[in-house]
Every structure is written in structure tokens, then in C-alpha cells.
Design brief:
By secondary structure, the protein is of the alpha+beta class. The chain has 5 helices and 4 strands. Helix 2 runs antiparallel to helix 3. About 25% of the residues are buried.
């Protein structure tokens, strides 16, 4: 005898729909205080960045992480409550980051992306600082950055002229700006990883 089990008449679909409805309702409650337009979101994010900078300078990492989460919820709200806030140049997170970037050459606030030059151990490096939406921002104590050579004919911290630094879990320390932090990290890399000796950039990587 063959027994055919009838489908559950869409019961699983109903459960999935109810779960999604509950998720959206919870998200709306959590983000009701956040602006819903890009025009209003940009100055709001500037305020978050300013508060985040103050938290970092006082080594209040719990508050810094809370503010980073708030920035992500802001981008998610602009994205209709969906993920993918960094999915492409026009995704909300990418647009917010771009519209709040520091002027080139100026040291950004903690949480603001920016590009500036430091000099340490006789090495000049252009620092590309990550912001509130950077990789690992949701769990790392310190925001990441990339360092690129300025003087391509001189020894640097890597043979490619480029080195990224991400995922720091070092102890919080008050008073460190993005500039002083980047300089300390680069100097530590030279002393520890390179034994105090910067390396020549390979010819294939040198810029004309």
C-alpha cells in the first residue's frame, strides 16, 4: 500500500511570514527614532561620528561599539530594513560613508573615513582610515586602516608598498587620535615584524 502525505497547506509558509512580520515590527521599534531619508541621515551620522570620537578619546569602548551599531541600524533603515548596506557604491552604508568622509589630508575623527600622511621611523605613509562601517568595526576595539608608501624609492613597511591593519584587540587607551594610533601601529610593526629594518619596495610594485 502506498501512502501519500498531504502537504501542510502552507503552514510552514505561514510561520515564515509571521516570523518576518515580527522581525520587521521589532526593527521598526528599534529604529523609530532614526531618520528615514538620506538628507536627514547625513547630519545624524555626523553627530554619531562626533560622539564616537569622544568615546574613543576617553577609551569608552562600550559606548563606541554602541554608536557603531547605531550607524549600522541607520543604514539598514535607509535600506528598508534589509541587509546589504555595503553591497555597492549606491548602497546606504557606502553613500553615508562617502558623504561624511574627511577632506583629503585632514586627520579624520574616530569613525570617519579619511586619507592623511604620517611619518614615523623615517617612513612616510599615506593612511586610509576606516570608519564606522569598516571591517570588524562591530567587534574590534580599534578601527582598521591601510598604509601606502609615499616615497616609493625608499624602504617601507612592506615590499609591495601597501599594508593593511585590521582586527585590533589591543587594550583601550585614552587620548589616542587616529593619527597617533596609526603612527604607533606602524612603528610597532617596524620594530616587531621587521626587526627595526624597513624593506625595499620591489621594482614591480613601484609607482612611476
Amino acid at each position: 500500500m502506498t501512502i501519500h502525505i498531504a502537504p501542510q497547506l502552507g503552514f510552514d509558509d505561514l510561520l515564515a511570514e509571521a516570523a518576518e512580520t515580527n522581525r520587521k515590527s521589532a526593527f521598526e521599534r528599534e529604529t523609530g527614532h532614526l531618520p528615514g531619508s538620506m538628507e536627514a541621515a547625513v547630519p545624524y551620522l555626523f553627530d554619531l561620528i562626533t560622539a564616537h570620537h569622544a568615546a574613543m578619546l576617553t577609551a569608552d569602548i562600550d559606548e563606541a561599539l554602541r554608536l557603531r551599531g547605531e550607524a549600522h541600524r541607520l543604514a539598514e533603515k535607509l535600506n528598508g530594513g534589509e541587509r546589504g548596506i555595503l553591497a555597492g557604491p549606491e548602497a546606504p552604508g557606502c553613500r553615508l560613508e562617502r558623504l561624511t568622509t574627511a577632506e583629503t589630508g585632514a586627520v579624520p575623527l574616530w569613525g570617519q573615513t579619511g586619507s592623511f600622511v604620517i611619518e614615523t621611523n623615517g617612513i612616510r605613509a599615506r593612511i586610509e582610515m576606516h570608519g564606522l562601517f569598516g571591517i570588524g568595526a562591530g567587534f574590534s576595539t580599534w578601527l582598521g586602516f591601510a598604509a601606502q608608501a609615499v616615497d616609493w624609492d625608499k624602504p617601507f613597511i612592506s615590499q609591495t608598498g601597501y599594508r593593511s591593519f585590521m582586527g585590533f584587540q589591543a587594550e583601550p587607551a585614552p587620548g589616542l587620535t587616529p593619527e597617533t594610533f596609526a603612527a604607533k601601529v606602524v612603528a610597532a610593526h617596524v620594530e616587531q615584524a621587521l626587526k627595526g629594518k624597513p624593506v625595499p619596495i620591489l621594482p614591480d610594485y613601484r609607482k612611476a
